Amino acid sequence: MLTLTLLGTALLLCPHGGAGTLCYECPKYHLGLCYGDMSSCTLWHRQACAVENFYVLTKKGRSKYHYSRLSCMTNCKDINFSGFDRRTELTCCISSDYCNLPEGL
């Protein structure tokens, strides 16, 4: 009986079953700080934690880091987008909770 009570309490406190991976959400992340509201999201079907790194291209063609966006993203795939004056790098992960925190930026 105690086991059923504990199981029921766990399901009430963790409505997703406690199995969902958690990710950071931040609209503008730069050098360890979130400019906006830092929150978290839980992964659902076909989602991954995502880091979108935005770069500005210099006149010499080099990439200069500008900022990152952290989120949960559906159908996320690692990819690089390049334009004339900017580059976006998308990195996805599902390996562990909060795996989308950029390192070294």
TrEMBL record:
Keyword Signal carried by entry: yes
GO CC aspect terms: extracellular space
Domain UPAR/Ly6: 20-101
One matching Pfam family: UPAR_LY6
Signal peptide location: 1-20
InterPro entries attached to this UniProt entry: LY6_UPA_recep-like, PATE2
Record organism: Tupaia chinensis (Chinese tree shrew)
Protein name: Prostate and testis expressed protein 2
Keywords of the record: Signal
